[in-house]
Specification:
The protein is of the alpha/beta class. The protein has a single domain, classed as STAS domain (Transcription Regulator spoIIAA). It contains 4 helices and 6 strands; from the N terminus they run βββαβαβαβα. Strands 1-2-3-4-5-6 form a 6-stranded mixed β-sheet, with helices on both faces.
Length: 133
């Protein structure tokens, strides 16, 4: 995995040219400011690498008291997609209990949207989904 200059103290970001995507791995639970800082760094990395395929590993973010997931999927990702001008496909790795707690319609994006996302508990399945896009 290629190290990337866009990493923050709470999010490791790497460009994976071998897989054709960016990987962002949250290192711990974060504050709201750190959440926004991390996603802003992902935006910068996506612009730099012209990359619309992302794998976000959120399994270490065990504190879900913030409204982060809704902000990311409803506001942030659509903004990034418009800026990049290419489809955006994001696979989120989450813990099984978190995935089980979500309503079915919150686990994936609406079909046909220029922003596609899905949540997974298995990294292999997430990578396969990204590569199939």
């Amino acid at each position: 995995m290629q190290s990337d200059q866009f990493s923050t103290a709470s999010l490791h970001i790497a460009h994976r040219p071998d897989l054709g995507h960016l990987t962002g791995r949250w290192l711990r639970s974060v504050t709201e400011a750190e959440l926004h800082e991390g996603y802003e760094s992902l935006r910068q990395a996506a612009r730099h690498h012209a990359c619309g395929y992302w794998l976000i590993d959120a399994r270490r973010r065990t504190n879900r008291s913030l409204n982060g997931p809704e902000w990311v999927t409803s506001r942030f990702l659509p903004e990034v997609q418009q800026e990049l001008g290419i489809p955006l496909r994001v696979g989120f790795l989450v813990l099984p209990d978190y995935l089980a707690s979500l309503p079915a319609d919150a686990a994936v994006a609406a079909p046909g949207s220029p922003v596609q996302y899905a949540r997974f508990v298995d990294e292999g399945a997430a990578n396969a989904w990204l590569m199939a896009g």
